[in-house]
Inverse folding.
């Protein structure tokens, strides 16, 4: 992997991310063999409940000390600590999809990368927009953005809280990545800030061999379609940029519907976003809302945290533990997809990832676990 050498200033930024008591290391023969860490955050569930959660990152094992159980011990110790802290879930962005399922993590959200040519991607008549967009420097952004993100709220399932240390590393790109962030803030017609965008200008990995210059959008959050669209129109109007490439955008962002030519929104990739590991299954099940259908008895299996295992009566008005025989059974890793509406119970059953003891319960479960809006994280860590 190509990455710039971290400078002394970069290490100072990275060091702030390490929270005391949340960093784990495993040693073999006196040598550090692997690490993992987390920071305190929270996670929104369908219906608006926000539960405490651990954001897991910096997971790695030395290349010459793999296949010795290092990662398993680190994951087990970390999950036990997350549970002791009273956090309902652990969450991460997976470098490889084959690693974390065996530890109970499952895909909770997905994202997409889109590319738009600035010369051709123009708004259709009556497209949303308006207000004012202004550029701010990184120091001002560090003052404005954390509060603005907090005020906008984690309004969509899968979104997480961003601690101050996350913001510092997010904006300190020169120290960490050798490039720099550009930030714009949107204000509504009354002058109230209600959205922002963070991007990296052309150059480095973002300049293609044909001389085209790409603006790479890293982060965009706004209060509604007018502010979101206005930020997009601003980005597409930046001089000397031939293309805007946006990473980790929601699958249901209506860009295609805002453009005069919908084909100018080119989807380059769709991929898993946030992986969630329920650590307190009852709290996670009770934290989300449910659709209208007859109740279903769901069994959750958890070999790593057996205290999570059990049967739960899922009904429109809530969830309770039950001694009744299960109608559906699922491993805790696949529970994440159900909790966040990423997959229907019937879809998991077709993939042999959910066992239907009573096939008639599948239709009811589909309606109970349906989510009105696609889950999306929008925060990389």
């Amino acid at each position: 992997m190509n990455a710039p050498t971290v400078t002394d200033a970069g290490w100072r930024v990275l060091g702030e991310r390490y929270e005391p008591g949340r960093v784990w290391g495993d040693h073999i023969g006196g040598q550090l063999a692997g690490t993992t860490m987390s920071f305190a955050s929270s996670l929104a569930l369908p219906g608006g409940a926000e539960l405490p959660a651990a954001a897991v990152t910096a997971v790695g094992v030395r290349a010459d000390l793999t296949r010795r159980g290092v990662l398993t011990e680190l994951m087990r110790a970390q999950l036990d600590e997350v549970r002791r802290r009273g956090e309902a879930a652990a969450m991460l962005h997976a470098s490889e999809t084959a690693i974390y399922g065996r530890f109970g993590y499952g895909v909770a959200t997905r994202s997409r990368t889109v590319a738009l040519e600035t010369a051709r991607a123009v708004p259709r008549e009556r497209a949303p927009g308006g207000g004012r967009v202004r550029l701010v420097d990184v120091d001002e952004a560090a003052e404005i953005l954390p509060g603005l993100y907090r005020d906008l709220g984690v309004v969509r399932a899968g979104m997480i809280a961003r601690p101050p240390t996350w913001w510092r590393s997010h904006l300190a790109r020169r120290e960490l990545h050798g490039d720099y962030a550009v930030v714009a803030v949107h204000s509504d017609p009354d002058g109230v800030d209600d959205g922002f965008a963070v991007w990296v200008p052309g150059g480095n990995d973002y300049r293609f061999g044909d001389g085209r210059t790409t603006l790479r959008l890293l982060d965009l959050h706004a209060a509604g379609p007018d502010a979101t669209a206005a930020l997009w129109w601003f980005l597409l109007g930046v001089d000397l940029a031939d293309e805007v490439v946006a990473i980790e955008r929601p699958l249901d962002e209506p860009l295609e519907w805002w453009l005069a030519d919908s084909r100018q929104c080119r989807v380059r990739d769709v991929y898993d976003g946030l992986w969630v590991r329920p650590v307190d299954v009852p709290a996670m099940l009770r934290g989300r809302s449910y659709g209208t259908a007859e109740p279903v008895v769901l069994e959750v299996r958890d070999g790593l945290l057996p205290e999570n295992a059990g049967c739960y009566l899922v009904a429109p008005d809530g969830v309770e533990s039950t001694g009744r025989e299960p109608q559906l059974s699922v491993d805790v890793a696949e529970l994440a997809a159900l909790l966040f509406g990423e997959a229907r119970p019937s879809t998991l059953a077709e993939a042999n990832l959910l066992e239907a003891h009573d096939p008639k319960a599948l239709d009811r479960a589909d309606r109970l676990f349906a989510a009105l809006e696609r889950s999306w994280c929008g925060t990389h860590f």
